[in-house]
Amino acid sequence: MDVRLVKEIAGRLEERCVGEVPPPGLSRKDHIVKILYDELAKLLGGESEFSFKPGRTNKVLMLGIQGSGKSTITAKLAKLLTRQGYKTGVVGADTYRPGALVQLRTMCERSNVEVYGEEGESDAPAVVRRGLRHFGDSCDVILVDTAGRHKEEGELLDEMKRIGKAAEPDLALLVIDGTIGNRCYAQAEAFHKTVPVGGIVVTKLDSSAKGGGAIAASAATGSSVMYIGTGERIDDIEQFSSTRFVGRLLGMGDVRAVLELAKRLEDGDQDRLKRISSGKMTMDDFYQQLGEVAGAGSLQGLLENMPGFSGSVQTGKIEQLEGRIERWRYIIQSMTQAEKADPDLLNASRIKRIARGSGWPEHDVKELRKGYNNSKGMIKASKGRQMQGMLRRMGL
Ligand code: GDP
Question: Start and end of every AAA+ ATPase domain (predicted)?
Fold first, then answer.
């Protein structure tokens, strides 16, 4: 990757990681994950897809070097768009590689996508012009596949420029081989100079490659990744998701759960968080924290997505915990303000009264008190930063 870019990213990361204090409830590790995500997502341009303009033909030019998976992704995209209801046509303008047109036709045949091409013709811009004329306004989208190799790089780029003029594309999609890594920046920059790149596709992400080159390609062109290729079969294409991608890059699964938790904590009541981290949590605070961690009833999803957690939580236990949280709501409602503010007041006679008032056995009230005490002790020990630890103390 470009050295300037690396320096720039590293500098920003260091500044933020050192300078920012994690909000109470978020571990330092998760906070760093969030900062990393923020910065990488900024480079990747967030999540985006091409917005097709209705009522007219949208022309998409596919760019990329030979072997990047350009023809394959063209066929995949044609099928995907067809399934989404767009009438799609393909122009095969790779007039350089022998067999390119046959390959494209074979791949598109099964999804009933028409491919226009001229076997034996070497003037690619002319093929593009005639191809576009052939489809006329019968299509919503026309994908134009191009050559990826010439005797000289200069020749290839010159041809792209001429094809760009002939096609006047609404979108130029740059296809990047996810396994090539650090050569992406220069490659993307060179293509971008010939035809302004509006989106990126990263292929071969089914391999062990992490696709870090996508970040370089995004930075070089100022455009976002739109699709990824995840295999050799025609259906192995996905809309790009930056949370999944960054998770993969960091080797930790989907980072969405961490981000959502961070957001909830940031949006949360600062007074309450301050109270909790200083060891003065009330019963209401405890309940609200639990609710936040559990999310909108999706504790399972949260934990499954939480790095290091997936697979460790059994469904039965989740239901058990959700049931417990629900019970505790009724029990807490039966407490007086004084008891909620200072749960140490909960002695045997108060417990008996609360049990009667809430309709739950004393055993459950005691369990709540124990959960509260465990959590409070744990938060104190970790200075309030260990939400995951809290869940573990809850028996998960
Ligand atoms: P082009 O020269 O850029 O048009 O590249 P092709 O579409 O011919 O693909 C080059 C090779 O990469 C072929 O063997 C494809 O089967 C393979 N390929 C393309 N996309 C993927 C992908 O997402 N995953 C894997 N594993 N292989 C891919």
Answer: 56-232
